[in-house]
Every structure is written in C-alpha cells, then in structure tokens.
Write a structure and sequence with these properties.
By secondary structure, the protein is an alpha+beta fold. Helices cover 26% and strands 25% of the residues. The protein has helices at residues 11-34, 41-54, 125-142, 151-163; strands at 58-59, 71-75, 78-80, 94-105, 108-119, 168-169, 175-177, 184-188, 207-210, 213-215, 221-223, 230-232, 238-240, 243-246, 253-254. The protein binds 2-amino-4-trifluoromethylsulfanyl-butyric acid and cobalt (II) ion. 2-amino-4-trifluoromethylsulfanyl-butyric acid binds next to strand 4.
C-alpha cells in the first residue's frame, strides 16, 4: 500500500463523510438492538440492508470481493467477517456487528465503517470485561490520533492497553484509511512493529477506520472454509470495536458516533 496516495478530504468531502458515518452508526445501533436470543443473523442483515437503502445510502460490504451480505456478524470465538445466515443468537453470546455504508455525489463515493460487540441476554463477567477493554482500547488509541503524531502512536496505545490487561490483539487484520473507498491507505495496525519515531505522520483531513480486534486468549486466528469467517485458533472469545474518524487540528472527530449502545458493558 505504501506506493499509493494518501488522500486528504476537503471540507465538502468531510460533510459527505459525516452523513455517511451517521447512517453507518445508526445501522450499527439498529443491529445492536436486534442482538437478542432467538434472532437469526440473517434477520439482522436484512434489517440493516433495508435501513441503509431507506436512508439513500448503499451497503459497502455487499459484493465487496464477493462478500454475500451487508453486515458481518461474528459470534463468540469468531473475530470478524462472520456471514449472516440461519444461525440463531443464543443467551450469553457476544455478537460483533461490523457495518459499512456509502453515499454518492458526482459519481464519488463516501464511506463509513464501524463495528461493536453486543451482549445477547446475560453474559459472563469474563466476556463483559473483554468487550469493555476492546471498546476502551479504541479510545486509548485515538488519544494519539492528532496531527503531528504518527500511525504507530495509535497502534501502540491500543496494543499496550489490551496486552497489559492480559488480552491479545489480532495481527492479520488491521484498520485502514477510508473515504472514497472502504479501504484506502494507510494501514492502521493494532500493534507496533517498526522502530520508534517511524511511521506515517497524521495530517488534518485524513479519515481513518480504527478497529481493534481483541482476543481473550492467544492472538492466532484462522479463516474458516467459507473463505470469510475469522475465528480464534484457541476458540476463546474475541471482540471488535471500530469507528471512522477524522484527523483535525485538535481532537479527532468520530464520524460514526454511537449514543449509549449496549456494547459499552456499562
Ligand atoms: N469493516 C471491515 C473492514 O474494515 C469489513 C470489510 S469485510 C467485507 O475491513 F465484508 F466487506 F468484505
Ligand atoms: Co474497517
């Protein structure tokens, strides 16, 4: 990805991304409301797709590299990219919902992307803690999402927060730039590899999807035979939290804001 242009958004682009982000966040909230024992993942997918279209937007995920649905629903040991289907949510499940939507203007697309993990009925304290650390790690990361800092400052803060609490962060999948497309450069890993002081510098007008994927056990994952579903190798639970953000001259702006959803573990 390093050869690709880093795209800075104009004031007009940002206004479009706020609109896309609002729809995407509302779709996540709608999915979260539906996470209850007895509900099929297919029903959530249908409701999310219909909602996005009713708002004049389109689902970013549908047909993306052949992905067959509008939302990813990943349950318990599933990390990301679970495909909605006949499966019914059970009491005690933790359910990660990831959704993307875009609006168009003058043939340009403006994408939002966000995720959260929701509780189905009563869940164990163990998974509640995992979900709340995962969500908080996003906010720890974006404390560093300021002009002049570098991408690995965000990554390192997320990794440190999660690992110091005994969890692991997934390596094979990362956050990303977003805007005219769902995936733009740069990559936003949830771990640090490079030397301190290196890495892409953050500039006002960058729009990024920051998305920690956090495992209760080891970091290792595998992809199921459906070619999509990612689960933990040790089959211990995993949680996900994601927002699309804008780098500004001051604090980052969350373009997919949630208001008090049930993923907060409160
Ligand atoms: N939010 C995910 C991402 O950032 C989902 C894309 S998966 C697909 O990569 F379903 F769209 F393929
Ligand atoms: Co994403």
């Amino acid at each position: 990805m390093s050869g690709e242009m880093l795209l800075l958004k104009s004031a007009r682009d940002i206004e479009m991304m706020r609109r896309a982000g609002k729809i995407t966040a509302a779709a996540r909230a709608l999915a979260g409301e539906m996470v209850k024992p007895g509900v099929s993942t297919r029903a959530i997918d249908r409701a999310v797709r219909e909602y996005i279209i009713s708002e004049g937007a389109r689902p970013s995920f549908l047909n993306y590299n052949g992905y067959p649905a509008s939302v990813c629903i990943s349950i318990n040991e599933q990390v990301i990219h679970g495909i909605p289907g006949h499966r019914t949510i059970q009491e005690g499940d933790i359910v990660s919902v990831d959704v993307g939507a875009f609006i168009t203007d003058d043939f340009k697309e403006y994408h939002g992307d966000c995720a959260a993990t929701f509780f189905a009925g009563e869940c164990s304290q163990e998974v509640k803690d995992l979900v709340s650390v995962t969500r908080q790690s996003f906010f720890e990361g974006i404390k560093f999402a300021k002009a002049g800092n570098r991408v690995p400052d965000i990554s390192g803060a997320i990794q440190k927060y999660c690992e110091s609490r005994g969890y692991s962060v997934v390596r094979e999948f990362v956050g990303h730039g977003i805007g005219y497309r769902m995936h733009e450069p740069p990559e936003i890993p949830n771990y640090v590899t490079g030397l301190p002081g290196r890495g892409i510098r953050l500039v006002p007008g960058m729009t990024l999807a920051v998305e920690p994927m956090v495992n209760m056990g080891g970091a290792e994952i595998r992809v199921l035979h459906d070619g999509w579903t990612v689960e933990t190798a040790d089959r211990k639970p995993s949680a996900h939290y994601e927002n699309t953000i804008l780098i500004t001259d001051g604090e980052p702006e969350i373009l997919t804001p949630a208001d008090g959803d049930r993923s907060y573990g409160a």
